UniProtKB/TrEMBL annotation:
It catalyses: The enzyme shows specific recognition of a C-terminal tripeptide, Xaa-Yaa-Zaa, in which Xaa is preferably Ala or Leu, Yaa is preferably Ala or Tyr, and Zaa is preferably Ala, but then cleaves at a variable distance from the C-terminus. A typical cleavage is -Ala-Ala-|-Arg-Ala-Ala-Lys-Glu-Asn-Tyr-Ala-Leu-Ala-Ala. It is an enzyme of class 3 (hydrolase). InterPro entries: ClpP/crotonase-like_dom_sf, Cterm_S41_CtpC, PDZ, PDZ_6, PDZ_sf, Peptidase_S41A, Tail-specific_protease. It comes from Leptolyngbya foveolarum. Belongs to the peptidase S41A family. Cleavage of the 16 C-terminal residues from the D1 precursor of photosystem II (PSII). This proteolytic processing is necessary to allow the light-driven assembly of the oxygen-evolving cluster (a tetranuclear manganese), which is responsible for photosynthetic water oxidation. GO terms for biological process: proteolysis; signal transduction. This is Carboxyl-terminal-processing protease.
Length: 433
């Protein structure tokens, strides 16, 4: 099976901020819209057929999928809202939070997300499989949630006073979204401590890459912060590396902390900027058909590289960091990554609604299946709750000596640069002899 990269998403979550992390380019629409208006049952069967043909688990969570079809098609649906509810109920039986139905408004919002413009408070959320809690994967930098101090791992217990207990993820997303300049109150539990945030929704243009030249013990270095793998991330990354190369930096720190993922093609394009040759990622579908993505000698720099990761680094972040680690191209510093190793395809349906379907899992070049396990950094540096909150309150400290993970990355990078110089010197002495 050939997987079209631009038809896939690697988003960790449904996104309360309408973030580009779950955008998809090129969706499929069925031509039976007129028929659907006469028979809402057609939508139910259309979704069933998509799952039957594409879902990654051919046991369908140990369900008799044909019996499921019969059960839902034997019902009478008087309007499309009943059909929508039936579809959500049917998909819930798969026990897969990433395979989900979007009504026309939700699907339209997701398509708008592709443009890199956010409307909301700026958090990516997920639903824990075991507890069903609504959990923050990461706040998006320079958004209301981020500036207010919402952190990765925060559990949202209520939205505008409405308890999230038993709430569907899509319902939580809809409650958090809203018109620009309106406000929403989030009740949050952090390490058992209740907190409350009143956030004003904004429209924000997101630039996923920021970079700077920093001083280090072995000369100047390039610091690049990548916040999400949106459609414009690769272009911005390319410009950042080229600019830093012109400034003759001695090495790089690539910061993927709290980066929840995004588009598969974006992670592959960026990996090729650092890796000259070798496997980047493999995707495996339910028939064990493997599609392998490899580097094609498009590398922009071969200078030493250290990558920062943490529990908010998910999906596309794990593809990139895993590829760099397995190809011995970079050293990873930080804490265990999120552990999201599944690929979704988004399909438009006849009436303007849509479905995200998990169609494959991905493996790192060495064959690691990181779903639910994550990637272990080469140097594990855990932050205390106090350190995390301090960095969240004062973002100017991120990427400085007051950032413990960055400080370790700088130490590791300096050792690597120094080691490279010593090796080059030794090689030169040998030649003279």
């Amino acid at each position: 099976m050939v997987i079209t990269k631009r038809g896939l998403i690697l988003g960790t979550t449904a996104v309360a901020s309408a973030a580009v992390a779950v955008a998809v380019i090129g969706v499929h629409r069925n031509a039976t819209q007129a028929f659907f208006k006469e028979s809402p049952k057609e939508l139910v069967d259309e979704v069933w057929q998509l799952i039957d043909h594409e879902y990654v688990d051919d046991s369908f969570n140990s369900l008799d999928w044909n019996d499921v079809r019969s059960s839902y098609l034997n019902r009478n649906y008087t309007d499309k809202e009943q059909a929508y509810e039936a579809v959500r109920e049917m998909l819930k039986q798969l026990d897969d939070p990433y395979t989900r139905f979007m009504d026309p408004q939700e699907f339209s919002n997701m398509q708008i997300d592709t443009q890199g413009e956010l409307t909301g408070v700026g958090i990516q959320i997920t639903q824990e499989e075991e507890t069903n809690e609504i959990v923050v994967v990461s706040p998006i930098e320079q958004t209301p949630a981020f500036e207010a101090g919402v952190l990765t791992g925060d559990v949202i217990t209520a939205i505008d006073g409405k308890s999230t207990e038993g709430m569907e993820l899509s319902d939580a997303v809809n409650l958090i979204r809203g018109p620009v300049n309106s406000s929403v109150e989030l009740a949050i539990t952090r390490e058992g401590k209740p907190l409350s945030f009143t956030l004003t929704r904004k429209r924000i243009e997101i630039h996923p890459v920021r970079f700077s030249v920093e001083s280090g013990p072995e000369g100047t270095l390039g610091y690049i912060r990548l916040t999400q793998f949106s459609a414009n991330a690769a272009a911005e990354m390319r410009e950042a590396i080229k600019d830093l190369e012109e400034k003759n930096v001695t090495g790089y720190i690539l910061d993927l902390r709290s980066n929840p993922g995004g588009l598969l093609f974006s992670s592959i394009d960026i990996a090729e900027m650092w890796i000259k040759e070798g496997t980047i990622v493999s995707t495996v579908d339910r028939n064990a058909v493997t599609d392998e993505e490899v580097a094609h000698d498009k590398v922009l720099t071969d200078k030493p590289l250290v990558v920062l990761v943490d529990g908010g680094s998910a999906s596309a972040s794990e593809i990139l960091s895993g590829a760099l680690q397995d190809n011995d191209r970079a050293v990873l510093v930080g804490s265990q990554t999120f552990g999201k190793g599944l690929v979704q395809s988004v399909r438009g349906l006849a009436d303007g609604s849509g479905v995200a379907v998990t169609i494959a899992k991905y493996l790192t070049p060495s064959g690691r299946d990181i779903n639910k396990l994550g990637i272990e950094p080469d140097f594990v540096i855990e932050l205390s709750d106090e350190q995390r909150e301090e960095l969240a309150k004062d973002r100017d400290k991120v990427g400085t000596a007051e950032d413990p993970q960055y400080s370790k990355a700088l130490e590791v990078l300096s050792d690597s640069i120094r080691g490279g110089r010593n090796s080059a010197s030794a090689a030169g002495v040998g030649k003279d002899k």
